[in-house]
Specification:
The protein starts with a strand and ends with a helix. The longest helix is centred in the middle third of the chain and has 59 residues, at 355-413. By secondary structure, the chain is of the alpha+beta class. Helix content is 50%, strand content 18%. The protein is extended, with a radius of gyration of 56 Å.
């Protein structure tokens, strides 16, 4: 509540103005603006006034507040009071009127209770008391004292004498009025009475306007309260509807009726679009008819983001749209809640009514499911019988042809031709893979028998150390071949009832697994120890790559594999550890693994010392015995293949093969080496190094490989700038759709499944190379077009400075003395050389511009010997110890554009000089062969590697260090010769490199013009 009028702040602002201080110093930190505080029609709280007084104490002393009160008594705010006082009251009556509880001061400060008591003889006591609960403020009482002193002046008297006593919440003022006025003052008051009456009327008019404004504010407040009452009444009605019943139709009708009768809308309509348990609910309820010309207001109904329907209402006459919208916003939460509750109740009621039907339907479904389950169980039993028959016959059906293959191999070995190295190696591969197939079949039979409870065990009490030690010795040689240490730790004799073959198989599988995942230099430890009085623990620990916690939980399941092995070709089938688990459980024991990635693994089996009852039952009926396990499948790694060229040393392309199985890798290389230069890699990491060195034309890769798998290899291979045009063919046994899609996403373009036909692999490689060659040709065409634009631009840039140099040589020779300008003098020779080369640059730039713009070279017959001499003279100061030898057997002319042919020869000889080095030699030989001019440029340098011969003429390809070459010299030479109807190629030599230039000698004019014109667009030829 705002207890104090802002008129009380007027003396403070006047005092600040007299001190030349801004009024804003009192408004800082106050929750009212300065405009509000200086408006005499506004009000503030008493607590705010006290904070303002605290700020005023910083600028005014206590006695200053009494003086400010006197100024306030003279201010225009007291003018209406003084006028009324002069017209109606004596000074004593004025004190009683001003300080009665129901008059002016009470309106001025509602928290102050004033009283006035007449003491006789012109004396009066005024008491001001601050009501309880308000903060004391002595400065208010001091301001009031100053105002009390000025009241007699309104009657033309001198100021009153006042004595003030201030207590905590109360102030007493003893006022002594001045003597009565003189006759002259009375006469003056009588004469001025009409003016006082006019002034009183003017101030009464202003007070009337204030009262009117207050009345309007009260009317607005009353309207607001009326709207709130309507809102509350409507909400109350709706709440009663909600509590009275939850039927959906009754609720909707009651809501629409409340909106019309209570809320005062002229019409209301609810359209419901919802669902109950997936069934749609449609309702529409309307009340009254829309008045003509009324615009309906549509509002969506929703609860927690779920749409319920729409609400359409029309306001009554005289109701503003904003008031209508405010009322709707207030009512919507209650409306939505009522409709949602009714829908929920309807859903529950419907569910209760249909519960019996649903129970019957569910019972029928369960009966059908039971019958279906019974049928499924019967089918599973039949399938199990079929599987048993399959596994019973698989031994005969698979082992028989494998036995025949083994016998055939043995017979072939007796033949004389089997002693040849190639035949013997192939026979060894066949024998090894037959052994692998036989072992795999045995493992599958063993696993199936264990799952079906047909595993035959013969547990016998025996000392376990004597059983484990021979197995460790058997695997030691294989471990040593891989750079591993295999040791047995068994400190005491341990006896238990175990099956010998089963125990040997468990130990062998653990050791085989450890060898696969332990790098060279690692250690494998087999430990046998007692685990309490009734159990035995067999543990195989290694220092290998370790296993992630996620894989450890599934490692003993069938066909689950861990990380890639550290050695190529040693992938397993994912059933070895499953067999260990089945054998351990058949003994009544358990298996487990403890591993940390990068720190190794510990696989262990815990077996009971005495055979348990469940294990004893496995010795009855038709059973499958446990086959032995030997270390031969993990063969010693052979010497890896590197680079294999075709027999005739002429390769169609370079193929990189990445395969982790050494035998299969060698077989693929043997298939491809007939036509291609083959690069072999045993894993993805090695393949990346080989690709970086040789830049192959095709990559053939497996998917699952150690270190870097096939997918990562494909991504990194295609990401290398030099391999982006090389196709990738995936060769793998994983033929599922996911593997295919992953391969294509990584960048592969073809897919070959194992086992594969050599002819199919060769055909796919040929097809991909043909596509690659087409793409390279298109790419070459684009690059050559770019080079033409580049050469034209460069020629345009160098033509003007070259002409300036050429034109400046003649004046320079005239300025030189005669003896210096003579060609016999070194200065004269330098000037002649400057003139010759400047003219050559200008001619070359001019010819290039004309050639690029018209496409026609201005050719003429040029003698060959001076042309070659001009080129060789340019290298006189650039050989740096290298020897340049020229032998020209052809002394005739050649039809050419001299600057272009000179530049082509210069680029090729310059490349040879760089390759030969400071101590090398460059030989240039020219002659006529079968009507062609043949120019051979050879050097004694390192030569051109076979894998680079197809790339050295590519634009911007260079083997020179950064800053030594642009990669355009040989490209431009090839382009110049082709435009003259010639060509350039590389000739094989035992050492160094020989570039052969061939140009036609007959009908050169017609051929060159036709060749150049045909190479240009139709529009250019026409112009």
């Amino acid at each position: 509540m705002r207890e104090l009028s802002c008129k009380a702040l007027e003396p403070l602002f006047r005092g600040l103005n007299r001190k030349n201080l801004p009024a804003s110093v009192l408004a800082e930190g106050i929750p009212y603006s300065l405009k509000h505080l200086t408006n005499r029609r506004e009000r503030i709280e008493w607590s705010v006034y006290c904070r303002i007084i605290e700020k005023a104490r910083q600028h005014f002393a206590p006695e200053d507040f009494e003086e400010l009160g006197m100024v306030f008594g003279r201010s225009p705010y007291w003018t209406p009071v003084s006028i009324v006082a002069r017209l109606l009251f004596t000074p004593m009556d004025c004190y009683h009127w001003l300080f009665s509880p129901q008059t002016v001061l009470r309106f001025f400060a509602t928290c102050i209770t004033p009283t006035a008591t007449e003491m006789g003889d012109g004396r009066v006591r005024v008491t001001l008391r601050l009501e309880d609960g308000y903060e004391p403020c002595p400065e208010f009482f001091r301001l009031t004292k100053g105002a009390l002193l000025e009241i007699p002046r309104a009657y033309g008297f001198a100021g009153a004498r006042t004595t003030m006593s201030i207590m905590e919440r109360e102030a007493n003022y003893d006022i002594e009025l001045p003597p009565t006025r003189s006759r002259l003052a009375v006469l003056r008051a009588v004469v001025g009475w009409p003016l006082l009456a006019w002034s009183a009327a003017r101030h009464l008019k202003s007070a009337h306007e204030d009262l009117q404004r207050r009345y309007i504010e009260l009317e607005e407040a009353r309207d607001q309260l009326s709207r709130q009452a309507t809102q509350l009444a409507t909400v109350n009605t709706i709440s009663q509807v909600v509590h009275r019943g939850l039927d959906l139709n009754d609720t909707l009708n009651a809501l629409v009726d409340a909106l019309v009768k209570v809320a005062g809308f002229s019409s209301a309509e609810v359209t419901l679009h919802s669902d109950m348990e997936g069934r749609p609910v449609e309702r529409r309820v309307r009340k009254r008819v829309t008045l003509p010309g009324a615009e309906p207001i549509r509002t969506p109904l929703e609860v927690r983001g779920r749409a319920l329907g729409l609400l359409d209402v029309c306001p009554r006459v005289g109701l503003r749209s904003d008031e209508c919208q405010d009322l709707l916003n207030y009512l919507l939460p209650t409306l939505n809640m009522a409709i949602d509750n009714a829908l929920t109740f309807t859903t529950v009621l419907d569910y209760r009514n249909n519960l019996e039907r649903r129970v019957a339907e569910r019972t029928a479904e369960l009966a059908e499911a039971r019958d279906h389950l019974t049928e499924t169980v019967a089918r599973l039993k039949d399938a199990q019988s079929v599987r048993e028959r399959i596994f019973a016959n698989i031994n005969h059906e698979i082992r028989t042809p494998l036995s025949l293959i083994t016998l055939a191999v043995a017979e072939i070995r007796k033949m004389p031709a089997s002693n040849e190295p190639g035949v013997a190696a192939q026979l060894d591969i066949i024998s090894a893979n037959v052994r692998r197939l036989l072992d795999l079949v045995g493992d599958l039979l063993l696993l199936a028998a264990a799952r079906e409870g047909k595993l035959r065990l013969r547990p016998v009490r025996q000392e376990l150390g004597s059983l484990v030690r021979p197995i460790v010795d058997l695997w030691s040689s294989l471990a040593e071949s891989h750079g591993l240490t295999l040791a047995l730790r068994c400190c005491e004799e341990i006896h238990a009832e175990v099956d010998k073959a089963a125990l040997e198989r468990m130990v062998a599988n653990f050791i085989s697994n450890a060898v696969k995942f332990t790098p060279a230099g690692g250690r494998i430890t087999v430990e046998l120890r007692a685990e309490g009085p009734d159990q035995v623990r067999l543990e195989v620990a290694d220092t290998g790559v370790g296993i992630s916690p996620e894989v450890c939980t599934q490692l003993f399941e069938r066909f689950v594999q861990g990380p890639p092995p550290v050695r190529p070709g040693h992938y397993g089938s994912g059933i070895g550890l499953s067999i260990v688990k089945e054998l351990a459980e058949a003994h009544g024991g358990s298996v487990g693994v403890e591993s940390l990635e990068g720190e190794g693994s510990q696989f262990f089996v815990i077996l009971p010392r005495v055979r348990v009852a469940q294990a004893a039952a496995l010795c009855e009926g038709r059973m499958v015995t446990v086959p032995p396990a030997f270390p031969e499948p993990l063969s010693v790694p052979t010497t890896p293949l590197s680079v294999v060229s075709p027999p005739n040393n002429v390769a169609e392309a370079t193929v990189l093969v990445a395969e982790d199985d050494p035998g299969l890798l060698r077989a693929i290389v043997d298939v491809l080496r007939r036509q291609y230069r083959v690069l072999a890699a045993e894993n993805g990491e090695q393949a990346l190094r080989v690709a970086e060195q040789y830049r192959p034309d095709v990559l053939v890769t497996d998917i699952h490989m150690p270190n870097v798998d096939g997918l990562e290899l494909i991504r990194r291979f295609r990401g290398s700038p030099g391999n982006r045009m090389a196709p990738v063919i995936v060769l793998t046994a994983f033929t599922d759709l996911g593997t295919r899609l992953s391969s294509f996403d990584a960048g592969a373009v073809d897919f070959v499944s194992k086992p594969f036909s050599p002819e199919e692999l060769l055909a796919r490689i040929r097809s991909q190379l043909a596509v690659r060659q087409m793409a390279l040709r298109l790419h070459e065409t684009e690059k050559m077009a770019s080079i033409g634009v580049l050469s034209a631009g460069l020629a345009h840039e160098i033509r003007n400075p070259a002409n300036v140099v050429a034109n400046a040589v003649a004046p320079l020779k005239r300025l030189l003395p005669a003896d210096l300008s003579n060609s016999s003098h070194p200065v004269g020779r330098l000037v002649d050389l400057l003139e010759s080369n400047a003219q050559q640059m200008a001619n070359l730039a001019r010819d290039l511009l004309g050639f690029s713009s018209t496409g026609e070279a201005t050719c003429r017959m040029e003698p060959l010997v001076p042309l070659i001499k001009e080129v060789s003279d340019r290298f006189a100061d650039r050989l740096n110890g290298c020897q340049l030898r020229v032998n020209v057997d052809y002394l005739g002319d050649v039809w050419c554009q001299r600057p272009l042919l000179v530049q082509a020869l210069y680029n090729i000889i310059d490349n040879a000089v760089y390759a030969a080095g400071e101590t090398g030699e460059v030989r240039v030989a020219a002659g006529d062969e079968n009507g062609k001019l043949v120019i051979d440029v050879g050097d004694t340098g390192p030569g051109v590697a076979p894998e680079l011969r197809g790339k050295i003429f590519d634009p911007f390809f260079t083997t020179k260090p950064v800053g030594k070459g642009t990669g355009l010299g040989l490209t431009m030479a090839q382009m110049y010769l082709q435009r003259h109807g010639g060509q350039v190629s590389i000739i094989d030599r035992p050492c160094g490199a020989v570039f052969r230039l061939e140009l036609p000698l007959k009908q050169q004019n017609e051929y060159a013009s036709r060749t150049v014109a045909a190479s240009l667009p139709r529009e250019t030829r026409a112009s």
